[in-house]
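=== RUN LOG ===
request id: a7f3
mode: sequence -> structure
chains: 1
length: 193
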Amino acid sequence: YLYFSSSMGGKSRVYSSQRQGNRWAKASSPGNFPVITNGQYGNASLSPDGQRMYFTICNNDKGWERLNTRCEIFVTKKNGVNWSQPERLPDYINMKGVNTTHPFSVYRAGQEILYFTSNREGGRGGLDIWFATRDLGSEGNDFVFPVNLGPTINTLGDEISPFYDSDEEAIYFASNGQVSIGGFDIYKSVGDE
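=== RESULT ===
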């Protein structure tokens, strides 16, 4: 299965497609996914066990403004073949008045690490990459207070779309604040949390 975000039809949504031989089936809403009526949603990330899907709901009352649209992270949990109603992550992750988006989940040493992007206070500037952890034994969304990845990763510009490869112990991300040929380029950094 491939899960992705698209604005086909004029509104951003999460879609899925299943590979059938050498071809992908026509994209559609994931089976048994909850109905989300307000805002646009996307940037989905499945937990490694496939039991949680983190995604962003963005409100765009003033029209879609790319990185400036107000977004928050939600989670839906797998219950048999169905997905639960989305739950908004706590206020200390989705802080009032800031953008919180691009979640990515990884399991390590009995914990779930949730990487995400936010322009919250305490960052280096623009959108930074942050992480928060929770014990895998917990059913709730009780993450610890988020930590900024620091100046090795984050710049005065924007860092988005974190992806952590556990085998390589490397984080991949896009940045427009590093020295590059311009715009968002993809970078890799090896390390832990």
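=== NOTES ===
The chain has a mean pLDDT of 90.
The CA atoms of residues 52 and 77 lie 5 Å apart.
=== END ===
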